[in-house]
Design a protein that fits this description.
Layout (H helix, E strand, L loop, with lengths): L4 H4 L1 H8 L1 H7 L1 H8 L11 E2 H8 L4 H9 L3 E3 L9 E2 L6 E3 L2 E2 L8 E6 L27 E2 L8 E7 L2 H8 L3 E2 L2 E7 L5 H9 L2 E2 L2 E2 L4 E6 L2 E6 L6 H8 L4 E9 L12 E3 L2 H10 L1 E2 L5 H4 L29
Parallel strand pairs: 8-15
Antiparallel strand pairs: 1-3, 2-4, 4-5, 6-8, 6-16, 7-8, 9-17, 10-14, 10-15, 11-12, 13-14
Helix pairs in contact: 5-6
Length: about 325
Amino acid sequence: MPDPGDEGDEDHVEDEGDEDHVEDEGTEDHVEDEDDAAPATLHVGERLQKVLARTGVGSRRVCEDLIVDGRVTVNGEVPVLGRRVDPEVDVIELDGVPLPVRPGLVHYLVNKPAGVVSTAEDTHDRPTVVSLVPAEPRVYPVGRLDMDSEGLIIVTNDGELTHRLTHPSFGVPKEYLVQVEGEPSAGDVRRLREGVELDDGPTAPARVAVVAPSLLRMVIHEGRNRQIRRMCDAVGHPVVRLVRTRIGPLADPSLTPGSYRPLTFDEVRGLAAAAVPSDDITEADRHPDPVGRGSDLGPLDPVRADPDAGVPPPG
């Protein structure tokens, strides 16, 4: 993740609400005096407000207010002001969404070109998506894009976020621009929207729009192997080219093929928030408002396509 110092470095945070400020306000004495028999977790580790500020939530004072307002939980419990935590093991959430507080976490958004495999290593010496980002720390792709597919994929060492974005119990909408053979009829589009029968069972309803005679925009929240390709095969229109343009609320039309950028704190939190339980997915969840760069663009704008791929960028 980007250095949170851009918006609130340690010096700035100390100015807003340093340890002396806490002493002046009586927070330190208040916690010790009123809770002499408090559990050991109150007195071991870093102060919660300091961890939140370092992560990028806001200044120390803002983080103190969030704690007092009950919007922060530690391991599922609402903490008192002055609670100390271990970012390596404690699960810290803001408004029910996990925060990336463990030191050393990185989150990259990559625009994967065709011909690159979505694995950390490849036994056939093909280029991997992990080779497109810095070698340290060690990271892994979140989910997969077929080797022949293009577009956005997240690469990270954040196990909690990876779980929320890939586990079947959650449903994160992903948007694709799909060029197909022939021109799908209204009946074909309706079948894709309502769900088609595949060899591993029927697909869930999807959002499908016709962008051009042979170009579809599709939004799905399942993560089956080669699902878009198999859905289009099932209605008689095999995929010619497939580009993922959005993951949850995250899009970036300016990101060129083969390039990457770190995600902001707000983008990481937005992705975690988009991972809602599958049973709770609504129509709005399947097509959320974007929060990434280029979010002011219309919903049909793709990530920048590879000019050498032989197909002009749709739109």
